[in-house]
Hints:
Layout: E1 4-8, H1 18-27, E2 31-34, H2 42-47, E3 52-56, H3 66-86, E4 90-93, H4 113-133, E5 137-140, H5 155-165, E6 170-175, H6 176-182, H7 186-193, E7 197-202, H8 218-227, E8 233-236, H9 244-254
Parallel strand pairs: 1-2, 1-8, 2-3, 3-4, 4-5, 5-6, 6-7, 7-8
Helix pairs in contact: 3-4, 4-5
Amino acid sequence: MSFTLAACAEMIWRDKPIEWRCARLKELGFQVGLWNWPAHDLAKLEKSGATFSIMNGYLEGRLADQDGADMLLKSAYETAQVGKRLGVARLNLHGTGLGDGGIPIVKHDVVTGAMWLKARDTLNRICDMAEKEGVVFTLENLNLLDHPGCPFNSTADVLALVSAVNRPQLRINLDLYHTQIGEGDLVRWCEKCLPWIGEVQVADNPGRYEPGTGEINYHGIAKALAKMGYRGPVGLESFAIGNEGVALAAFKAAFTV
C-alpha cells in the first residue's frame, strides 16, 4: 500500500513562490502542508489546485491560562474560516504560542496540575467551536531542544491531553522527528497514539532532512504503521538535503509498503 502523502510547502523550493510550490506538489501527487496563512495570498493558493492536508490552526494564544485561552479561541476561529476556504483537512495547535524560530512566547519550565486542567478545558472549547464550524484540529508534540520552555510538548503530554478530551474534533499530529529527539521508541509511540492520530509527520534526524539521510528507519516505521492499521496521511515536514525531487522520491519510497 501507499499512504496518502503530503509535504510542507514552506520547507522546499524556498526560492520559488508558494503557489508554484503547491502546484508542483500537486503535479507530483502530494498533498500540501502549510504554516502561517497570513504570509500568503489565499487567492493564489486556491488557484494552485492543491489539496491542503494541514495548516497552522492559530496565530496567537495559549492553552493553560484564561487570557491566553480566550486569545487562542478567537485566533483559531479566524483560522478555521481560512481553513474552510482552502479546504484544509486539519488545523494544527501547539502547547503554547510560538514566536520566531519556534521559541515559545511564554516559557514554562514547570507545568502545574491547574495548568493541565485549564489546557483540557481550552481544548474542549476548541472542540465546541470546531464542531460548529465543521473543522478538525490537531495537537502536535514538539521537542524541547528546538522549542525550550514549551508546555505540553512531549508525545506523552499530547497523548494525555487528546485522549482526555477524546472528541473527534481533536486529533494528534504525531511528529516523529520530535518524538525521536524527545523520547525515541517510535513504533511503540505510534501504537499508543493510534486511536487519536490525525496525521503523522516525518523528518530524519539529525538535520531535519528527508527519510534516508539520518538515523531513523522510516521504511520500517511505515511497515509497522501499515500492520497496525494506520491508513491516515503522512506529511513530510523536512528540508531537502539536496535536490527537492530526490528528497520527495525518497519520502515516497520510504512510505510505500
